[in-house]
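stuck on this chain:
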Amino acid sequence: MSETHDSACEHLDGKTKWEIPVVALIVLGCLVPFLGKPFNMDDPLFIWVARHIQSHPLNPFGFEVNWYTHVEPMWKVTMNPPLASYYIALVGLLGWNEVLLHSAFLLPALGAALGTYLLAKRLTRYPFIGTLVALLTPVFLVSGSSVMCDVMMLGFWVWAIYLWMLGVHDNRHAFLLLSSVLMGLCALTKYFGMSLLPLVFLYSIISKCRARSWIGYLLIPVAILTAYYYWTKALYGSGLLVQAASYTKATRELHGAEFSWKLVVALTFTGGCALTALFYTPLLWSKRVLEKGVFLLVVILVCGQYVRGIGEFTMP
């Protein structure tokens, strides 16, 4: 796939005008049946923070919670920034029931779908298929039916990349500015969004775009994250960016030493994020490669029958 810079590919041609509504209908068709889904997994954490924000908007994590069988400050329990909870707090002015909150999170899902389509349109001749490959995955459908921050982060992510590509190649400073703000919002939705900074930096270097036209805009998300660090440090005595990094390190030390743990986690996330790619393997690889892949899968499944535990977890 080659990147297309021809502006003629960017406007809404006849094909695009029907593909975008179809993508939106597919997303709605997958998520609307789950509007009444009970809150689960980490949903309560985001909702509790949102409720607290309504009464203490400048102190989102300033309360205690019993999550790990004992009471702890919320800022020690949650490992996500508060932007998604601010969105929930705004919607919560209308009510806190499942249908209302899940309906509100259809907007980030649709935004992520549209951004993915436009990004795919710039990178390939088959944006409709590319979008469906990305969206019809377990990770998107499960996360999209929650009130957690993942799909919202994805929406900010794809739009930030799309606008950055337009900005650096066409020297459009308004797009670079908007993309930089979206990078900051992405990181304030989920800390993983910070990885956008090195990604767009390396992309711009490899694309041989003039650095003086774009490099200054990367200071905007850096400034946003720096302000967030000192704000949370003033509130809680510890910058929450560092807190999240410490949690990741501690989790790695607890589980990550075992190869079996790393392997299972890697396979789980790969399957959840890229399962639909299996349908295109006959077009990507030869019959011999596919036979080797099936053999490797069988070996993994057989060996898995003899695994008694992964990390601290005992296998049934």
In short: The CA atoms of residues 26 and 191 lie 29 Å apart.
